[in-house]
Amino acid sequence: MQHLASLGYPLIFLVVFCESLTAVGFFIPGSTVVIIAGSLVTKHLYNFWILLAVCVAAAVLGNTMSFTLGKLGRLSALHHKSLKKFLGVGDRFFQSFGASSVFAAHFLGPLRNIIPTIAGSSGMKQPRFQLANTLGALVWALSHLMLGYSFGTVWQSGIPPTLRITILASLSLLLFVAVLVIGRNLSSEE
Predict the structure, then answer these.
(1) pLDDT tens digits, residue range 141-173?
(2) Which has more confidence, 93 or 129?
(3) Which candidate, 26, 11, 40, places its Cα nearest to that of 149?
(4) Which of 130, 100, 119 is nearest to 190 (CA)?
(5) Coil vs helix vs strand at 47
(6) Residue among 119, 149, 181 nearest 48 (CA)
C-alpha cells in the first residue's frame, strides 16, 4: 500500500487531468479514483490537503486545455458519431446555463470534458471561464474527497454492515442534493 501511495499523487493527477480532456475523458474514471483516494486518507496513505491541491490543479488544467482547444477551433474530436449526441446535449446545456454550466459540468460525467470545449468555441472570456472552472474544480474535488473520507471512516468503524450501507447511501444522497442546490443557485444568478 505504501508503494501505491508514493505513486499515488502523480497517478491521481494524471487520471483527473485526462478525465477533464475533450473526448479522452469519456473513458477515464476520475471521480471514482478521487473518492477511493479520499477513503485512503483515513489509512494515512495520503495527506488530505495535498490530495485536494493535486485534484483541483489537475481538473483546472485539464479543463483549461479543453477550453483552449475549443477556442482554437479544434472540435474535430467531438464530431465522431459516438460523441455527437453528447456534443448536442452539451451545447444546449451551455446555451441554457452559460458560466454555471462550466461549474456544474464537473459533476456531470459525460459533459465534464465537453462543456469547456464548447465554452472556448463559443467565445466565452477566459477570466469568466477560469472563475467558474476553478470554483467548480474546488467544490468537486472537496466533495468527492470528503465523500471518500466519510466512506473510509464509516467502513473502518465498528458499525454493523447494514447501518454502514445506510449511512453511506445517506451521505451520497446528501452530496447529490447539495450539488443540485448549488447548481440551481448559480443558474438563478445569471
Answers:
(1) 998 899 888 878 777 777 777 776 777 778 778
(2) 129
(3) 40
(4) 100
(5) coil
(6) 149
Core vs surface per residue 100-127: b (16+ CB within 10 A) or e: bbbbbbbbbeebbbbbbbbbbbeebeee
**Cell numbers representing residue 87 in the block:** 456534443
Which string of b and e fits 147-165 if b means at least 16 CB within 10 Å?
bbbbbbebeeeeeeeeebe
What does the block give as the cell for 57?
A: 490543479
pLDDT tens sequence across 103-124: 888 888 777 888 898 888 888 8
Per-residue DSSP letter, 31: H
Ramachandran category for residue 123: left, alpha or beta (phi over 0 → left; psi -120 to 50 → alpha): left
| Helix, strand and coil in the chain, % to nearest 5 | 80, 0, 20
